[in-house]
Design goal:
about 180 residues; 5 strands; binds flavin mononucleotide
Length: about 180
C-alpha cells in the first residue's frame, strides 16, 4: 500500500521524528511505500483565508489523495496538537478535494513524560473525527522517550517494543480492508 507519514517537531533532535523514521522503516520492511513529511517540510505559512496554499501544502495534499492511509507521529504540547501540525491539518481541510474524509489514520506519539503524549492524541482524535478521518482506536505511545528510544528511534522498553508490530499490523489490516481495491 501507499502510506503517508506526518509528524515530528521543528527540532533537529525531535524524538517524534526519530520514532517516525523507525516506523517508516518498519512499514517499508513490510513491503509498503512510505512518503514521510517531517521537520522543514512542515514549516508552512500560517493558514489565512484568501492566502494561496504554499507548494508544501499542495504536495502534502497530493500525497494524501494517493495514499491508502496516514501515520501521524505527534509531539504533545500542553495536552494538545503542536501548532505547526494543526496548521498543516487546517490547510489541508480547506482544499478541494480534502484528503481527510474516510482516510484511515494511525496515531503515534513520543514524549519524555510518563504518558508518552497520549493526552495530545485525544485532541488529535477530536480533530480527525471532525474532518471525517478514521483514527484506529489503538495508538503507539512512547513514554520517557529521552531514555526509551534508541539512536534510530526504536523503543527500548520491552512492552512498548512488543506493542509496535502488533499495532502496525492491526492498522495495515484495517487499512487494507477499507481502502484496497
Ligand atoms: C510548548 C510545549 C508544551 C509541552 N507540553 C507537553 C505536554 O503537555 N505533555 C508532554 O508530555 N510533554 C509536553 N512538552 C514536552 C515535549 O513532549 C517535549 O519537548 C518533546 O521532546 C517534544 O517532542 P520532540 O522531541 O519530537 O520535539 C511540551 C513542550 C513544549 C515546547
Amino acid at each position: 500500500m501507499r502510506l503517508v507519514m506526518v509528524g515530528g517537531s521543528l527540532r533537529a533532535a525531535s524524538f517524534n521524528t526519530r520514532l517516525l523514521k523507525h516506523l517508516a522503516q518498519e512499514l517499508e520492511a513490510r513491503g509498503h511505500e512510505v512518503s514521510a513529511f517531517a521537520g522543514e517540510a512542515l514549516r508552512l505559512p500560517l493558514y489565512e483565508d484568501g492566502l494561496a496554499p504554499a507548494p508544501g501544502v499542495m504536495i502534502l495534499q497530493g500525497a494524501l489523495l494517493e495514499a491508502q492511509g496516514l501515520v501521524i507521529v505527534s509531539p504533545e504540547y500542553n495536552a494538545g496538537i503542536p501548532g505547526h501540525l494543526k496548521n498543516a491539518v487546517d490547510w489541508l481541510s480547506t482544499l478541494k478535494p480534502s484528503p481527510w474524509p474516510g482516510l484511515p489514520v494511525l496515531l503515534c506519539a513520543a514524549s519524555p513524560g510518563a504518558f508518552g503524549g497520549a493526552r495530545g492524541l485525544m485532541a488529535w482524535r477530536a480533530t480527525l473525527a471532525n474532518m471525517g478521518a478514521l483514527a484506529l482506536p489503538e495508538a503507539i505511545t512512547v513514554p520517557h522517550a529521552d531514555q526509551q528510544l534508541d539512536a534510530v528511534g526504536a523503543p527500548t522498553e520491552a512492552r512498548t517494543a512488543a506493542m509496535v508490530p502488533k499495532i502496525l499490523d492491526g492498522f495495515l489490516a484495517l487499512t487494507a480492508k477499507l481502502r484496497q481495491q
